[in-house]
Amino acid sequence: CKSDIFSLGIVLQECLLGRHPTNVNQIALANAGPRSGTLGPWSTPLAKVIDRMVSRHPHLRPMPDETVAELDKLR
């Protein structure tokens, strides 16, 4: 469940950036987790949600229902 949230966060970053957030560097992905600070015009509120989703620590990632609620607020 938490790994699905992580994966969705990566996909969202890839959609917004037009490329994989770590340029498919699996070591960077595993070590730090990509941060969303460079999402351009989508930076502030959406980046905060995505950053939680791609947290290196699973216990810090939101649950699916929480993720849906946070993204729905941004819509």
Descriptive overview:
It is a single chain. By secondary structure, the chain is mainly alpha-helical. The chain contains four helices and no strands. The longest helix is centred in the first third of the chain and has 16 residues, at 2-17. It is globular. The chain starts with a helix and ends with a helix.
Name the shape in a single word.
Answer: globular
Structural class: mainly alpha
Q: How far is the first residue's CA from the last residue's CA?
A: 23 Å
Residue-averaged pLDDT: 82
* H-E string: HHHH
Give the strand tally.
0
Beta-strand fraction estimate: under 5%
Largest beta-sheet details: none
Structure annotation, total helices:
4
Helix content: 55-70%
Short description:
By secondary structure, the chain is mainly α. It contains four helices and no strands. The radius of gyration is 11 Å and the shape is globular.
List keywords for this structure.
75 residues, mainly alpha
List the helices and strands and how they pair.
Layout: H1 2-17, H2 26-31, H3 44-53, H4 64-74
